Please model this.
Amino acid sequence: MDPRDVGQWLETNNIRWVKTEGISIDGLVIGKHISREKFESALPLGNAIADLVMGSDLGGTPYLAWWDDWRRDAIGDFHQQPDLNTLVVAPDRSRTANVLCNTVNLNGEPVPACPRSTLQRVVQQLGELGYTAKAAFEIEAMLFSQSPASARACKYRNLTAMGHPSHLGYLHYNSRHQLAYIDAVIERLDALNISVEGWHDEAGPGQFEINLDPADPLTACDHVVRLKQVLREVALEQGHCVTTMAKPNEEYGNGLHVHHSLSRDGEPVFYAADGSSLSETSRHWIGGMMATLPAATSMLCPTINSFRRMVGFAAAPTVASWAEDNKSTALRVLSRAPKSARIENRVAGGDANPYLVLAAVLAGGIAGLRHRIEAPPALHVSGWGLPDGWPHLPTTITKAADAFAHDTMLREVLGESFCSYWENTRRWEWLMFHTTGGDAEATNVTQWELDRYFEIV
Model:
């Protein structure tokens, strides 16, 4: 939307309040409700917001162990610069509009820690190579009968799942339990112009999966952010609680699978009629993603809890692997139909920041194109239960941070400022777990993880 048209749009839609939606490094939606007059007067820079919002962890503790060049020495403000193309009438509050924002400094320059800006930089580099991408996310979540207050009172344990406590997926009997909730979610998504391809019951307790239609990379991630808000808002209104925490209990965890396709001059790059004769471009793209996958795991699995999900025979991949239509691999290639030729990354947990998930995926592919990295052999067997010697993915937040620190190819695409900040925040998360009540010897989900992640990731 042209900034000159904003006033007329607000008037036409009888808007009194604008909710600004910025995204933290951990994927939290942050912002303000500001008056229409304030919103207009603050353009184009946007409303101010305390800069500590990009310098604090999930528990609200400021990052004081290091200080990046882009962080002001004096604690002051950043700004939430609205992307006016995302301005939409709020379906849940009268006379209100929602708008997604990038975090910028006082000069209007993107802050390196802004996830949305980070993805935009990666997409720009992809365009400079002559390619365009589309992406679609699959979001898994678990729905429970208790309200958030009741869930807190029982410390998020022994919750009543909305559905039969089976390990079956696609069970319509469970879908029926979830129907009133999902119908309300989809109605709200329709009002936000977010198209749902489908949804179904999953194998975890109260678990369901929602599949979104493909879109350009930025829009695809915007839709995930808004979907997660809707999931929580509708649950709250109906007296339930919902979580996208990667592993809230000892059953199946929540994933955030992302499919992406690549085109050049309007032609699908990943298409291979027989599924075996991949083009040179496809081989290099897969090769780059494979070479950077251990490092990318840090962005795909961002919390202590993320790695509880990474166990064999429980849907999440455990080795760096790819193959044509193999759901046990990290990268599932689907190449046989030109309209649906794509690659699915199955590593990311439900707690991951969608902008950073897609930034890592595309950055790996870009590195493969730039460095002409050949794909390793495809995995034609199950990716679970493989012995030592296979390229197992990192199994802890610190091992993933170590892999990220030593990877030069992702840094080349993502930028040193972002990468340095990201690595430090992950090591900080490990430090918080070990110094504020986490059980370092635990092999199952700890209370510390439930308290920190259940309601907000």
